[in-house]
Model the fold of this input.
Amino acid sequence: MTRLILVGPPGSGKGTQGARLAGEASVPHLATGDLLREIVTSGSSEGERYKAIMKSGNLIADEDIVKLVDDRLKKADAKKGYLLDGFPRSLKQAELFSNTDAGALLDRALVLNVDEDALIERLSGRLTCLSCGASFHIKNFPPKAAGKCDNCGADLIQRADDNPESIKQRLKVYRDTTEPVIEYYKHKGLVVEIDASGSPDDVYSALRAYI
Ligand code: AP5
Ligand code: MG
Done:
């Protein structure tokens, strides 16, 4: 059984690697950013509130996120394991998660390390599929047909938070609020740090040992 979390700064490849790893391990890839973007797309009042917070590069309230994840992990497909991408990203979230049935059984926290200049380059050129969540890069991983997702054919967009101001704030929030989560899991002996600056295939090879 595979129960993993992927921790890393914006643009470190959580989505890219998470989709592939979860596919190979046959567990659901649960990215809190994707779950939140689905709520935003639904147009509900909650979605409107989340949209503004996400665009600013700040975090959604811990209690809302923990409930979202806990509810999702109670579904049948998560009984055989999970790969969480982008959660937990505050100490409070990590503590609350450890007190849930699924969180108490966590196998490892895989931490993706990439330097900040490379992150900015990756995020500035990213193209995201709103339908399946796949990401491409205008220069490094261009889609086969311009503006269309290779996997599902839907339109590719630039995410509302992939602009210089939001990227700067997301990196700051990562340093201030999410890095302490790594220390929390280090104390539990669960952290594996991965150099995620190489090619996607190289990073995948390093991660694969843990599924
Ligand atoms: P979220 O969607 O999780 O965004 P993020 O953490 O900022 O991370 P990204 O999705 O931007 O990057 P990634 O690591 O997935 O990289 P990717 O694989 O796409 O969260 C968005 C917002 O939602 C948050 O700011 C917050 O408001 C809210 N939120 C989410 N979770 C929350 C939580 N737990 N609590 C509170 N709020 C929460 O790759 C990036 C680009 O690089 C792509 O173009 C890709 O093709 C390219 N690339 C990937 N790997 C490589 C490589 N090895 N070499 C070169 N390029 C690469
Ligand atoms: Mg992502």
Summary: Residues 164-187 form the longest helix (24 residues). Residues 8, 10-16, 31-33, 36, 53-54, 57-60, 65, 86-87, 89, 93, 122-123, 126, 135-137, 140-141, 161, 170, 199-200, 203 surround BIS(adenosine)-5'-pentaphosphate (ligand 1) (CB under 6 Å). Strands lie at 2-7, 29-31, 81-85, 108-113, 126-129, 135-137, 156-157, 191-195.
